[in-house]
Model the fold of this input.
Amino acid sequence: EEAKTNGFVLTMCGARRHLTDLLNSPDRFIASKADRQAVNFKIQGSSAEMTKKAEGRMWEQGLFDKLDAEYIGPVHDECVSSVAIEDLQVFLELGHACMVQPYATMQVPILSSISFGPNFGTQIEIGELPTLEAMQAGLAEMSKLLTKE
Done:
């Protein structure tokens, strides 16, 4: 309805996707694309905004200058970094805080699960809070995995 009324839809932070050309197409198949694109843009565009805002907060915090950490990039709704084990606890605490900040006008809390591992394909999930105990348990599990290899 938003697209049909305005000719565009907005993400929660105001990014705009123009759909007038699709909506006004005489081809019903083309016009039907606007409905799907409107919904997808609101959801996926808002998700991308959340990830970009988390990335920006990480850079503002100086995580990649202060710590032995390198930002690799976003993967869907994840922020992927390479971090030295000796800086992992501080990185997890600060990075997690960047991920769970309120977004736009959402009333529900933003939650973020935490994982790390020796590579992107082997990850150990440690829960939703970056506690010292959770990190130590994850490192112990990772050590067991690495000794098996």
Summary: The longest strand covers residues 69-75. The longest helix spans residues 28-61. The helical segments are 2-6, 20-23, 28-61, 63-66, 88-99, 132-148.
